[in-house]
Prior knowledge:
This protein is 31% helix and 24% strand. By secondary structure, the protein is an alpha/beta fold. The chain folds into two domains: 5-80; 84-321, Ribonuclease Z/Hydroxyacylglutathione hydrolase-like (Metallo-beta-lactamase, Chain A, 4-Layer Sandwich). Strands 10-9-8-5-4-3-18-19 form an eight-stranded mixed beta sheet, with no helix packed on it. The relative contact order is 0.09.
Amino acid sequence: MNLSIIQSLLLTVVLALFFGLLLCWIYSSKRMPPLLSVKSKGLSLSSQRSLPVNYRRELQWGITSLIVLCLSIAGWQHSQAANWRLMMFDVGQGLAMGLFKENRGLLFDTGGSWANGSMAQTEILPYLQRQGIRIEQVILSHDDNDHAGGINAIFEAFPFAQFISPSYKAYTKVATTQRQLCQQGQRWQWLTADFSVLWPPQAVSRAKNADSCVVLVRLGDFQILLTGDADLSAEAAFSHAVPKLDVLQVGHHGSKTASSEQLIKQAQPKTALISSGRFNPWHFPHQTVLDRLSLHQADIYNSGWSGAVQVDFSDKMTVTLARDPLSPWFSSIIGLSAK
Length: 339
């Protein structure tokens, strides 16, 4: 059985209570002198004798402390889950973004796949399982493998999720009735988040970079732009509609074929998220893109440097990196520094 972190903590509390009550029942009715001896082989207890008072108190204290600790962590986990969370998964040279609130989630792209597996199976699904998250919507930016490779694995795990795509391409595990086309001008609300599609103008048979589904997400006062691999020509068409951004998912893994001066100047993103593979053969992100983002004072986070990036939204925005300056000392030597 697969349990989330909170479920595991609550199960620990139940088992601790059961263990404590069982010991109390075993020893409480015994009136004979305690038999408790420390031997070379360890501690020896007998159910035919009573438990010494001092050991009984230590046992009660230990079980109570364990229960309080588990409930505190579970409460903290639940309070964190009550806010919006944006996750850029570390899927190498690909893209997979998740938007979560409590135990409900939406994915934007699913990472790549290979002959016997996918990033969805190794990175995304284990995270969702640990957090106890159910995926309700999947938005696919376009049909390239590094973005769409995990679609079938995701829908095998969440067969009733809604599928939104800019193309008519069929995927084995996705039913036709679940599909909704991503087209400019579409708007919808999921939970308390508002979604607006800025690109493409029409659906195609197979979506390439220039056909990427570009979605503006509003979480109250926060604005997020998800661009997939939208190129310069697409950016030129939708940039005028982009507001000032809190988070920009940098297009095409930081390639110079995206992230135009026009878009960056218009959006003025506070935080720029780049999903790329460390030591990728294309040398993404391109230095001109990094310089442009820095010029406009964006905080830049690259999964190739920092691993997965988590952005939490409450009264303020907080960024947490999987790999940070406290990572092992040899990280910077082999090119794995957080920045």
